[in-house]
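Lab notebook, design round three. We kept the backbone fixed and only want residue identities now. Task for the bench partner: fill in a sequence for the structure below.
Input structure tokens:
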């Protein structure tokens, strides 16, 4: 996919606060300039297939703390693009106007059993427009490190607040994906907290994304969005 827009550096407020506390109390913990730059590079914003779909466009908008959800958004966008759609993949903060889109896929990393606040805010701000177009949601989380019925049910519940708050937006599907645990991307304090939590839960550091599952979901999504667009 061709890179067309600026990349953005966003540090989740939790991480900033934790990082600041870490810096004050422990003399370390904030991202080094090199790591900050590396993180900045990670927030993908791409476009593909422009002009392909009779002027119609699909938005894949995402919220991410460490960057891996952007790569999931990108993979989803690529599948939709390969099936003939014109797609923009964007950070939710970058999308100011939905008028050029006919369909939208919105996703986020999960923190504290919820979508990141900026993803929730995005749906809130655009709820009227989103209620009038085919929409799908997705999330990435570590609850799905082991995928079974209880973990899938728990992961699905992370979307309940969004579904409850904005019932007028009715997703045609919800993708639930395992994410990434990379301690090197976390500030000192958050790293310590996560290490303790993940040890307890038996989740090892690593990239737990299942690309086949992500692409399979996106392929199915294509026909669901398509049917609704035509209907
Ligand atoms: C501070 C923090 C809190 C998290 N909280 C949860 C959580 O409550 N439930 C969960 O399943 N995963 C949780 N995760 C895991 C992330 O959702 C997962 O690592 C995701 O892939 C990160 O995506 P990103 O690289 O786009 O930020 C948390 C990760 C971090 C760093």
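Proposed sequence:
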């Amino acid at each position: 996919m061709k890179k067309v827009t600026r990349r953005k550096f966003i540090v989740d407020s939790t991480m900033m606060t934790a990082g600041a506390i870490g810096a004050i109390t422990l003399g370390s913990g904030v991202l080094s300039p090199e790591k900050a730059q590396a993180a900045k590079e990670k927030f993908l914003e791409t476009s593909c297939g422009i002009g392909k779909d009779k002027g119609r466009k699909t938005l894949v908008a995402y919220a991410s703390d460490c960057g891996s959800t952007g790569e999931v958004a990108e993979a989803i966008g690529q599948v939709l693009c390969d099936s003939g759609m014109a797609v923009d993949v964007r950070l939710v903060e970058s999308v100011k106007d939905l008028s050029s889109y006919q369909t939208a896929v919105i996703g986020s990393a999960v923190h504290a059993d919820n979508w990141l606040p900026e993803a929730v805010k995005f749906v809130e701000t655009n709820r009227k427009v989103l209620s009038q177009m085919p929409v799908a949601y997705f999330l990435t989380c570590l609850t799905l490190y082991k995928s079974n019925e209880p973990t899938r049910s728990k992961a699905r519940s992370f979307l309940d607040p969004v579904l409850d708050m904005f019932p007028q937006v009715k997703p045609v599907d919800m993708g639930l994906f395992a994410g990434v645990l990379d301690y090197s991307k976390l500030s000192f304090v958050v790293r310590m907290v996560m290490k303790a939590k993940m040890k307890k839960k038996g989740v090892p550091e690593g990239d737990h994304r299942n690309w086949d599952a992500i692409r399979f979901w996106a392929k199915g999504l294509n026909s669901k969005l398509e049917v609704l667009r035509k209907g």
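Keep this in mind before ordering anything: The chain is about 45% helix and 20% strand.
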